[in-house]
Write a structure and sequence with these properties.
Layout: E1 5-6, E2 11-14, H1 20-27, H2 31-36, H3 45-50, H4 53-65, E3 71-76, E4 79-88, H5 93-97, E5 110-118, H6 127-141, E6 146-149, E7 155-156, E8 162-163, H7 173-178, E9 182-183, E10 195-198
């Protein structure tokens, strides 16, 4: 995705050093991305806890300045309105250590999608699905053999209240299915699903 991908409403670009101010402007609109800076799945738990939000921001900026793939931005009328974190699986320490995220079969050069963020002004337009499609194309152009995602389906108590953290920032099953991903969850009944799209 070296060139822009455009839909009727949005454009999509990889996050590069010249676009760093755009992701700062987008993340500063909400407390969650402004605190995490897409480091939760990249860092081991002790590192995550020991780093402040400012340090996490510095880590992401350092990766961007080094030219590492970290994600894709969505724009509408020139303004950043959406984000999808996508990068090689091996750059996500916590993903590799989490049992429910382990692949059921080996895949070559697998990339992981671990986070979405959509500005409130662009919600309810299926932007997550379009971001995911753009992330897949970006990974394909960088030589990925497969892309994985890990949406969580919450279980409900008898009164209808959810059990556990929502993890909505990881996307939904519907988002992945609309983007052509298959459910390859190894253990039936687990709340975190393993979705995969093969590119080769």
């Amino acid at each position: 995705m070296d060139e822009e991908i455009t839909t009727a409403e949005f454009e999509f670009h990889p996050l590069t050093a010249d676009r760093w101010p755009d992701v700062v402007r987008l993340f500063d609109t909400h407390s969650n991305p402004r605190s995490c800076w897409c480091q939760y799945w990249r860092l081991a738990q002790p590192e995550w806890r020991s780093n402040s939000p400012e340090q996490r921001r510095d880590l992401l900026e350092g990766a961007v300045e080094a030219g590492a793939p970290v994600g894709v931005l969505a724009y509408r009328d020139g303004e950043p309105v959406g984000w999808c974190s996508v990068a090689p699986r091996e750059t996500h320490d916590r993903v590799q250590r989490t049992r429910s995220m382990r692949a059921s079969e080996p895949t070559t050069n697998t990339w992981s999608v671990v986070c979405f963020f959509v500005h409130r002004s662009a919600r309810h337009r299926f932007l997550m699905t379009e971001l995911l499609k753009a992330a897949v194309e970006y990974a394909r152009e960088r030589g990925a053999g497969a892309v994985e995602g890990y949406p969580v389906v919450r279980r409900l108590r008898e009164d209808g209240s959810p059990i556990g953290a929502p993890f909505r920032f990881m996307g939904s099953l519907g988002t992945y299915r609309r983007a052509g991903f298959a459910d390859v969850t190894p253990n039936a009944g687990q709340t975190r699903h393993l979705m995969r799209r093969r590119l080769t």
